[in-house]
Amino acid sequence: MKRLPTLAHAAWTAAAVAASMAVLALPSASAAAAASPAPYPSGSEGPVFVQTDNTAHNEIVAYHRAADGSLSRRGAFATGGKGGVLGGSVVDHLASQGSLVHDCAHHLLFAVNAGSDTVTVFSVEGEKLHREQVISSGGRFPVSLTVHNDRVYVLNARDGGSVQGYRIAGGKKAAGGKKLERVAGWRRELRLDTTTAPEFTHTPGQVSFTPDGSRLIVTTKAGGSSVDVFGVSPSGALSARPVVNVQDGAVPFGFTFDGRGRLVVTDAGTNAVLTFAVREDGHVVRLDKALTGEQATCWISRAGDRFYASNAGSNAVSGFRQTRRATLEPLSTTVTSAGSTDSAVTPDGHFLYVQTGGTGGVDAFRVERDGSLHKAGTVIVPDAVGGEGIVAL
Fold first, then answer.
1. Structural domains of the chain, ranges and CATH numbers in brackets
2. Count of CB atoms situated within 10 Å of the CB of 132
3. Which of 8, 19, 96, 131 could be disulfide-bonded to 143 (CB atoms 3.0-4.6 Å)?
């Protein structure tokens, strides 16, 4: 049976549509750019990869990240698939987090092709990508991926939502390099209400393993208003059904984890960031709720004990610092270009990159010692208006 939305979801649906249109206007007056105290020492250089989600030909655009955080384009790499657009979306065509994922252990990059129902596997060599494989996502409209050891799961958004599991096989000496092998028994249906308009508010938002790989978590947005938790067996198979943790009045969207493995989730329903402890039995216990005071709070990235939530309806990023008790203390709110969506933090925590779906760009920010953000530049990604998916290495 499908899980039906509440009246609170209906109210958020109307607000989300209005917010998606409003982001094309000027940044909100309430969001003030942060001051710039003494910065961290210059960070190391490295690549940043951005997915265009172009409906004619999806591409991954590679940028060189300089020591000051600024970006310069290096090349574009075709995925061999097409991007997709969920009904009702304007600046966030996938309405998800985690559509582009890097696997440092295997030196692979995984990308969804929502319009082709496929996943592309690239091998990574510095700022260059080599396409190794294009494989079926095992469902309709893939929007998010996750990897742990040799296991990969893909979240498909349409037809009630589903997850499909794969193994990473092969190696440098194997013909064709490393590739995904689909495991037929690793598919699970989510049974969400994904048919209610607008579509982009009712499809699932993200899939991810917990840091230890023992559980798989899916957020369901307004299609279920829940945080779903599957158990993961030693073989990699999921429990037959997830523990469905319904959050009344909430719209769980993107998430990450803190240093102790606790779940940190954006709530697009109340425009807040929620912190949960994930129990061994799959139930989650709320520890804190921090309001952003912004609109369409949907994506989140972590830099040490700081968290940065993107607010698509306000063209702004809200910063929070986490205390030892897992409570969130507000930092500054920083203006971005139109349509703040998916984001990524460099491994050293010194830089934050925010996709701006209204312009098809990426805003670069230096993370200061006090957690405030100082802008380091902006680039426009070709053919990427509404695109999502970003990785910083």
1. 7-25+43-96+204-392 (2.130.10.10)
2. 18
3. 96
